[in-house]
Specification:
This protein is an alpha/beta fold. It has a single domain, classed as 3-Layer(aba) Sandwich (Rossmann fold). The chain has eight helices and seven strands, in the order ααβαβαββαβαααββ. A seven-stranded mixed beta sheet has the order 3-2-1-4-5-7-6, with helices on both faces. The longest helix is centred in the last third of the chain and has 17 residues. It is globular. Bound molecules: S-adenosylmethionine (SAM) and prephenic acid. Prephenic acid binds next to helix 1 and helix 7.
């Protein structure tokens, strides 16, 4: 995807030694480099974003309502809107970070499509969801406190119309200690291959500690079942990053 100049910076946030690494936050400096950061940090990110419209092909009609929860700069919403440029679908994109929401609003205006993308600042644990056809949460549940995750998934299940689809992408922690270690090594190799230094990898890791709390795949599966989803599958995995789909 083409970036607008304001968010096309190279991620150098953790490149210099910091005497004390502050907890990671989706602030203005992160927003400036976010597309570069997420593409170089999340294996399969681009493939997930470009595959989601293909998965949704069978769920999308003119009056479809889609939620993109934790939308950041709107990559998922834009990917959908640009794949179906003639359909007047409605996408409600919500993010907690003011900086993300402001930049997302500038970004989505830069393209032509019929979809109405409505971007709002808000906490996805608190917002009310209308009856909808599709809900997507890409790499955001991991930033929500664990004790709120089940309630959020249950709210999503309740909001979906029968036959509606939920897409959940997350970093996961393998339950097998050896595999967990190997997958973390592979992820760090992925970051190295993308130009991050040892210092950048370790300082970001410290910044994310206690901010990004990751679950096992079986925990995600259990939560989806508990929320009411009877049909679920992992449709994508690259190292310790997965995307799941669940149908009501
Ligand atoms: C890794 S980014 C998501 C990436 C995005 N979905 C994409 O595919 O490009 C996580 C986002 O979740 C947002 N976030 C974290 N907690 C949130 C909450 N409680 N409500 C809404 N957004 C939240 C952050 O502000 C951040 O923009
Ligand atoms: O696990 C890591 O080291 C990451 O950098 C992952 C991750 C994510 O999954 O959201 C963390 C923060 C940024 O938003 C980009 C990527």
């Amino acid at each position: 995807m083409k970036n607008t100049p304001s968010d096309s910076g190279e991620d150098k946030i953790f490149a210099s030694p910091q005497s004390e690494v502050a907890p990671f936050s989706f602030n203005e400096s992160v927003v400036d480099v976010f597309p570069d950061m997420i593409n170089r940090s999340v294996p399969g990110y681009g493939e997930i974003i470009s595959s989601i419209p293909k998965i949704l092909r069978h769920y999308i009609d003119s009056d479809t309502l889609i939620y993109d929860l934790g939308c950041s700069l709107g990559a998922t919403s834009l990917s959908i809107a640009r794949t179906f440029p003639t359909l007047p679908i409605t996408i409600k994109a919500i993010d907690y970070s003011d900086a993300m929401v402001e930049r997302c609003k500038q970004r989505i205006g830069a393209y032509n499509y019929q979809a109405k993308i409505d971007i709002k600042q808000g906490d996805i644990c608190l917002v009310e969801l209308a009856q909808c056809n599709v809900v997507i949460i890409n790499f955001t549940l991991q930033f929500i406190s664990r004790d709120k995750r089940q309630a959020l998934l249950s709210k999503i299940y309740d909001a979906l119309k029968p036959g509606g689809i939920f897409i959940l992408s997350e970093k996961i922690s393998d339950e097998d200690a050896l595999m967990r270690e190997r997958l973390i090594e592979l992820h760090h190799d992925f970051k190295r291959d993308n130009g991050y230094s040892e210092l950048e990898i370790s300082q970001k890791r410290s910044a994310l500690e206690n901010v990004m709390v990751i679950d096992s795949l079986s925990m995600h599966k259990r939560r989806l079942r508990e929320a009411g989803f009877k049909h679920q599958s992992v449709w994508f995995q690259h190292f310790n990053f997965v995307s799941m789909m669940a149908i009501k």
